[in-house]
Amino acid sequence: MCSIACARGLNTLGLASEIAKIYFVKGPVHILSRPRTQGLRYSYLRSLHNRCKSSTVLLSGSHSQDGGDDNGDNVFEVTREVPFTRANGDKFDKNVKILLIEKSSKLKFLISKEAPLLHHAQAGAVVDVRNGATQMGSSSGEHGAQEIHLQPYEDVEYIEETKDSIREKTQLVGALPPGALDWKPQRIDLKKLGSYYAGLSKSRLTGLVVITAVAGYAMAPGPFDPTTLMLCTLGTGLTSSAANAINQFFEVPFDSQMDRTKNRVLVRGLVTPLHGICFAATCGTAGMAMLYFGANGLAASLGALNLLLYTSVYTPLKRMSIINTWVGSVVGAIPPLIGWASCTGGLEAGGWIMASILFAWQFPHFNALSWNLRSDYSRAGYRMMSVTNPGLCRRVALRYSIAMIGICTLAPMIDVTTWTFAVDSLPLNGYLSYLAWRFYEDADSKSSRKLFLFTLIHLPAVMMLMIISKKHYSKKNKLDTENTPSETSNTTDLVPVGICS
Amino acid sequence: MLSLYKRNCSLMLERCCMEFLPVCGCSSVSGSSTEPSERPNMLPKQGKQKRREVDHKEALIDPQEVKCDCIGPADRHSNLRITQFYIPPSETPLQRQYREARTETQGWNQSFWSDHNANFKRMKEEFIQVRLKEKYGDNIKERKTLSADDMSEFYKRFLDDNKDLHKQYNREWYKKNANNVLLAARVWFQQRVNTRR
């Protein structure tokens, strides 16, 4: 026989016993909305040993519903709002939300030696476990399970908690430890495999990487070829997925420590490490092959370099040295170069401009993000700038934000974009610098969050502005080769339109 | 899922009967709350050393029954998710080696992180106490908290103090992790070959 008491969507659930563990879930979900126990998750646990710090309450006006027929699946627990009175007679105008377990469902067996009604201080919920009402209905089911039914609710007793009187203890007999229901067989669920793979490849990050690569391709002055662009996009995406999967494979115990990462696929064991590695190997090979055959050797080797840099330099470096952020920025700066190289087959100045925008962007972005995670990083052993050198962290973010203005002005100077880019990117970069300066001055979580959120808008916006103010070499080409209608001149015109639409 | 649900129930009952029967037996309330020494077997989770161990008894699922490894919730001390390994009836030596390697890695990880996290918590508490005293003196009437700036000093110190420990741990973890995945691949190949025959 065992008892397990759990509540979801209630403020709390109180119950006292020597061995009972009491746990409750904070959350907006009402218990009746999902009565099945298998859906429960315990995000917050608390055990009360020996003594429940309770202020007892007297419930009034609660009447039981008829239990209904015993058709197995019903869960006989009701959450209800009841007016309550304190033991000392004080009335409260607020109703209290209680969880009544009137009859055990298959997974909730409740027995108690007493008939107490305990109310955790400031709690919104009460669990009633009563012995007097307990009957042992030994209906041995098909699995030999013994069902114990609690009788429908009749009246409510209360016990007074005074210092002198020795309160008899409730005992929840055979309580299950918390989390007992959270064990899951580690079997691959094919239906969810897609979402697991999305998790392994950190789909949002990969999406951003792909966007920068496409932007790199769009900016390049070469001929536009849809197949190349497709293969370049896919190849970059797959390479990035591989890198992320390998990164997660290496970081399982570290990811487990941090709230931000503790729900990753490999941490939760939804996919085995070998599976993750196989996924990474497949993606990596396919991605590289696409870059090589779809684009060119340069793009493929940039992809390979980035994969290597991310997985075997950046990932271990995060736990070794503060320079990891700079290495990470290099990793972030390479994707537009891949796009550029896919288009032109070389690395011209324009590509480097894009790469340096990406490089500079990482600092306000990541430093602001890591600012609020200092506690986690410290515990998990990540040597991040925000922890080891907070001052430098803020300085660097500010420095590179201002540098961004310089880079965006440099772009038209070396003939990558028109001067409109320098002008219309100015407000964006100006605001970025302003937020970075606020972050530098205030150094609080609010300013860092603001800066982080803005960087998320800033990057796509700058990329977009850059593409629409791209220098159209096609016009020059036309002048050069006046009467020969070259294909390239027509197609390059399409690039910005194709991207922007 | 429903079948699993039912099986869980029966299993749960069995286990609870086994483990908590002594409690059921003498659960008459005699006000004997302060005599844990008399019935030490009734308080299975309160021993301090016991806490740190990987406790498999919590699960309702038996890996032997579902015929695959089972993974639990995040441990509250180490934050790691504990896996219970399935032992197939005809376990090959390689499979055994793989399972033992994983068990060993898990135990090692568990002990490292639960110690480390406990250490973090303790040091943080100490730091806060000391810092509060420095700031406000002994007469702290209302609850005061430290600013994020103050705390960042602790985070930095803790990280620096544990630098070598982490270095060691990282190296060891990379080794173990790689070894485990190689073993997993070998086991997989072996199974493939066996099913072909």
TrEMBL record, chain A:
Annotated region (Disordered), positions in chain: 478-501
Catalysed reactions, semicolon-separated: heme b + (2E,6E)-farnesyl diphosphate + H2O = Fe(II)-heme o + diphosphate
One of the record's GO cellular component terms: mitochondrial membrane
Pfam families: UbiA (PF01040)
Subcellular location(s) per record: Mitochondrion membrane
Membrane topology classification: Multi-pass membrane protein
Keywords attached to this entry: Heme biosynthesis, Membrane, Mitochondrion, Transferase, Transit peptide, Transmembrane, Transmembrane helix
Keyword check for Cell membrane: no
Composition-biased stretches (Low complexity): 482-493
Highest taxon above the source species: Eukaryota
E.C. number: 2.5.1.141
Signal sequence, renumbered to the chain: none
InterPro entries hit by this protein: Protohaem_IX_farnesylTrfase, UbiA_prenyltransferase, UbiA_prenylTrfase_CS, UbiA_sf
GO BP terms in the entry: heme A biosynthetic process
Protein family according to the UniProt entry: Belongs to the UbiA prenyltransferase family.
Matches recorded under HAMAP family: CyoE_CtaB
Protein known as: Protoheme IX farnesyltransferase, mitochondrial
UniProtKB/TrEMBL annotation, chain B:
Chain positions covered by the region annotation Disordered: 29-57
Signal peptide residue numbers: none
GO cellular component, one term: mitochondrial inner membrane
Membrane topology reported for the UniProt record: Peripheral membrane protein
Protein's GO biological process: intrinsic apoptotic signaling pathway
Cell compartment(s), UniProt: Mitochondrion inner membrane
Superkingdom classification of source: Eukaryota
Keywords recorded for this protein, A-Z: Membrane, Mitochondrion, Mitochondrion inner membrane, Transit peptide
Keyword presence, Mitochondrion: yes
Family of this protein: Belongs to the COA8 family.
The protein, known as: Cytochrome c oxidase assembly factor 8-like
